[in-house]
Amino acid sequence: MTTAVAAGRGIVTPQGVILDLEAAGVGFRGLARFIDVVIAAFLIVAVVQFIEITGAVGGATFSLVLQIIFSFLVLFMYPVVAETYFRGRTIGKWVTGLRVVTLEAGPVGFREAFIRSLFQLVDFILTYGGLALICGMFTKRSQRLGDLAAGTFVIRDPRVISHVPAVAFTPPMGTEIIVANMNVMKLRPKQERVIRSFLLRVGELSGPARVDLGTRLAAVTSEHLGHPGTYGLPPETYLVAVLAAAQLRDGGLAQLTIT
After folding, report:
1. Where along the chain do its domains lie?
2. Looking at 7-11, 83-87, 103-107, 240-244, which range is the least confident one?
3. Residues in CB range of 86: below 8 A, 6 or more apart
4. Is the pTM higher than 0.70?
5. What residues contact 77, with CB distance under 8 A and at least 6 apart?
C-alpha cells in the first residue's frame, strides 16, 4: 500500500510523485481570513447589541460576561465547527476555494480543527497576524503555527483549480506508429494526472525509486488500457507515448505524419 505524505507544494508518495494538490498561498489565506473575521465581527456586534437592548437578566456585569463568552465562542469555535463539519472549510475558505487537509491529504477532524483554532491566539490576536504571515512565508506549504501544531495545511481545492501548465508530450522517436494507433479511450483524468506528474518529476527521484515506480505505473496503465505488455517499450517511454496519444486524441498535438 502506498501512503501519501506532504512535501513541498503538494502531496507526494514515498516514491516522490507529487499529486495534484496545490498549497494555498498567503494571499488567498489572508483573504479567506478577512472574510471570516468580518462574518465573526458582524455576529458579535449583532448579539452584543441584542443583549444590551434587551437588558439581560443580572445587570450590566452579567451582560458583559455574556458578551465576552459569546465573542470567545464565535472567534474560536466558529472555525472548529465549520472545519469539522464542512470538511475543512469555513465560509471564507468556501468563497476563496480553499480547504484544510491533514498532511496525508485527508479531511480534518475535531482535534485538528480545535488545535488550529486555539493557535489563533498567537498566530493572529497577540501578534496581530504577524506570526501567521511570517510562518506562511517561510514554510514550504504556507503553514501558520496552528497548522504546524495540528499537522495540517491549506490547499486550493482541486475542483476550483482551472489552470494546469501546458506541456506537450511528443511521441518518443520510433513510436510514432504506435502512438497514432494507440487506444487510450479508457484513460481516466486522474490516471493521466498521475502519469503526467511522474514524468515531469522523474529528475527528483532516486534511480531505484524512478525505475520501481515507472515500472509499476506502466504495468498498471497498460493493463487498464488493454495494451499488450506496454508494446515492448521501456516503462517511461511507454508512459510518454500514452500521454502523447491522449493529447493527439484530444487535439492537443498536430496530426502525426507517418512515413
Report:
1. 5-160, 176-249
2. 7-11
3. 94
4. no
5. 117
